[in-house]
Design goal:
Layout: E1 2-3, E2 9-10, H1 19-41, H2 45-70, H3 78-89, H4 96-109, H5 130-137, H6 141-154, H7 166-192, H8 197-218, E3 237-239, H9 243-248, H10 255-260, H11 269-276, E4 282-284, H12 287-296
Parallel strand pairs: 3-4
Antiparallel strand pairs: 1-2
Length: 312
């Protein structure tokens, strides 16, 4: 048995990676992307819009699958996890290595002043109204950050004091170059064929659907939680959700449990939740309840564990 940060026991076999489960997730992702592309290609506007929504949603879902790869709990071995993880991040220009380095720092420093997240959608979101948060979800700031990263890691602009090793910098450079090459090939093929498919099949779904979708997947993680407490359940939220939300967010709804035992594969998090449920500080039954109670009504937990006090 393995003990977590709350000292409850987690069966050691729960850490065993089961690649076939992740391969099944990848199969579902590819099938749904193909279905969305077929709807877009059909020509009818209503079906095209539906296809664009489906493709964009799958781009966002791919980032959640990438998150599992960077923790090394998707497939066997770091090379295979990186290979698949890089591919999953390409549609939204997310560098696997940069995400991995910064996200693991987030796990290490969560609840301290050194904490920072890769997907930094803006500080003090708790101070914004519901509709301002909705508008923020459509922001292109993350793509601006990706463009700056390309200038820095590929072209050498900006300061080098960013905390990345030379090995990581080389990997990040490769990943951004691969994304740029893929975009250039897609644009070139689109122009050569006299088609706007690169816009319809990639850019519009990524910008108008995937970006806001991913924003709302990430938002609940630490929204309304204490910012400065090393108690893992104090700075992180869990949403019980449904089987659909568990699949679509790839277990991100059990985010407090993930912070407790980050090396436990995603498919085991419902079991961790059963062990940790009575200790959770920030818990919502479903995503509708989260939006209603935490964003619209702004009700947060006053009392936490170990004397913790959260935002209210």
């Amino acid at each position: 048995m393995e003990k977590s940060l709350l000292n409850f026991e987690v069966p050691r076999e729960w850490r065993r990676v089961r690649p076939w489960l992740f391969v099944a997730k990848l199969g579902a992702l590819v099938a749904l992307l193909c279905a969305g592309a077929m709807l877009i290609a059909g020509g009818a506007l209503p079906l095209g819009i539906l296809g664009g929504l489906l493709v964009g949603a799958m781009f966002a879902h791919a980032i959640e699958l990438q998150h599992q790869c960077l923790h090394g709990t998707a497939l066997q071995g770091p090379r295979l996890n990186r290979l698949v993880g890089v591919a999953l991040g390409l549609p939204m220009f997310v560098s696997f290595t940069k995400y991995r380095v910064q996200h693991l720092r987030h796990h290490r420093y969560a609840g301290t002043q050194n904490d920072s997240e890769f997907f930094a959608y803006g500080s003090r979101l708790e101070d914004l109204s519901f509709w301002r948060i909705v508008l923020r979800s459509f922001s292109l700031a993350r793509y601006q950050t990706a463009a700056r990263d390309i200038g820095h890691f590929v072209l050498g602009f900006g300061e080098r004091g960013d905390g990345f090793s030379e090995k990581d910098r080389a990997a990040i450079r490769q990943e951004y170059l691969l994304a740029l090459l893929l975009l250039a090939v897609a644009i070139g093929a689109s122009v050569a064929l006299g088609s706007a498919f690169v816009i319809k099949f990639w850019l519009l779904p990524a910008i108008l659907v995937a970006e806001p979708s991913h924003f709302w997947i990430e938002l609940p993680e630490h929204f309304g939680c204490a910012k400065l407490t090393v108690f893992p359940l104090g700075h992180t939220r869990t949403i019980r959700g449904s089987l659909f939300s568990f699949w679509f967010t790839n277990g991100n709804n059990f985010h407090a449990e993930h912070h407790l035992v980050q090396h436990v594969p995603i498919d085991r998090l419902p079991g961790v939740h059963a062990l940790a449920r009575n200790n959770l500080v920030h818990y919502d039954r479903d995503y509708v309840s989260f939006v209603r109670d935490r964003i619209v009504n702004r009700t947060f937990a006053y009392e936490g564990k170990e004397g913790l006090t959260c935002l209210h």
